[in-house]
Structures are given as structure tokens and as C-alpha cells.
Amino acid sequence: MDFMPSPWLNIPLQDYEGHMNAPRVAQLDALADLFEETLWRCIPDSVAILGIAGGNGLSRIDPAVTTRIVGVDINPAYLEAVRNRFQARLPLILHCLDLAMEVVPEVPVDLVHAALIFEHAGTEGCLDSAVRLVAPDGYLSTVLQLRPSNAESNVAPSQYPAMQMLSEHFRLVEPDNLRQRMKLRGFELQYETRRALPAGKGFWLGIFRRLL
């Protein structure tokens, strides 16, 4: 079987951020807000952000509280942007790898945050990589995109054509399905909330804790 490179390697960061910040999409601020809520609820000494992209939400981290920050992404250009934007203020450790096939070579952290990751990378190898990174009694928080309440496609129409490359690789993950998968891996749902978005879409935030 031929190896298919990730479409994320062909999407410029400015296109991704422009699309996500467009009024019809309006997801960047929502994702940052949900990450901030997760930080407030978990108060982690260490955090790993899977699919860090350009670092959306990193400005919500207090480095006096969270003293170790691991960022993972498949696109090296995204990680370079994170370095340029945040390295002077935050203690960053960045890894370029494919979460669906590779393990993050890091000591486990108090909180692993995975926002809109499993829709692209699946809930097999990627979920196992995420779980492996959670410390004993630690947390895994995830943001899932909910099924649209109308006929809107999962990846919204965009003025950035590169974004449409994602549509055939994007698969919604139902919160109940993830709950069951996390239970099998020894995690319990501690908190959940929903956030409405334009065009009938929405986010679900779930915070899971590893059982002792």
C-alpha cells in the first residue's frame, strides 16, 4: 500500500489561521477559550498540546503555574512559527511527528490537550499515543467537533482552497464513542461542556482523568 502524505503538510499556516478565524467559522477564539477553561480546571504543572499548529491558546498559559510545555505537530513550518511567537515567554519543547504512527518521546505530563486531532488522525494509534503521554492521575482533554445541525459540510467552505484538501480526511468522532474508548483505557470523564459555533456547528470539550 502506498504511503499517503498528510494534507497538513501542504496547508500554509496563514491559510489555516485565516480560515479558522473567518466569521463563518470562528473557531480560533473558541478553541483558545476551551483550552483556557481546561487549564483552569486542571492546573497542570506540565502540559502537552497535540496538533499545536501556530500556538493558538498558548497565550492563555501562565508560565509561573505550568512550567513544562510540550508541543507536537506534523508540520515543521507550524512549529517554527510557534518558536518565533512564544519561545521567549514560554518553556517550550517541540516535536515534529505523526501522532497516528509515532509516539511522543517525552516523560508523561499532567495534562494532554487534543483539540480537533482525532477527527484527522483517528482514534486508534493517535489516541494510544495521547494516552501514553498522560501521567498517573493526570488528565486528557479533547475538543471534538459536533455533527452540524444542518447540511453544512464538516470542513466549511473557505476562501482558502487548500483547506478543502482536509474534507476527505476529516471524520467526526462522537463523544459517546470517545467515552467508551477512554473507559477501556482506564480513564473516567470528569467534566464536559459544549460551545456553539456559526453555521449550526459546535464543539464538545471532555476532560478525562486517568484512574489510579
What keyword list fits this structure?
7 strands, globular, alpha/beta, Rossmann fold, about 210 residues
Structural description of this entry:
The relative contact order is 0.17. This protein has a seven-stranded mixed β-sheet, sandwiched between helices. It has one domain: Rossmann fold (3-Layer(aba) Sandwich). It is an alpha/beta fold and 212 residues long. Helices cover 26% and strands 25% of the residues.
CATH homologous superfamily caption: Vaccinia Virus protein VP39
Quaternary assembly: single chain
Write down the overall mean pLDDT: 90
Category by helix and strand content: alpha/beta
CATH architecture: 3-Layer(aba) Sandwich
Unreliable stretches covering 5 or more consecutive residues: none
What is the CATH T-level topology? Answer: Rossmann fold
- Which percent bin holds the helix content? 25-40%
Radius of gyration: 16 Å
In N-to-C order, the SSE pattern is: HHEEHEEHHEHEE
* Strand content bin: 25-35%
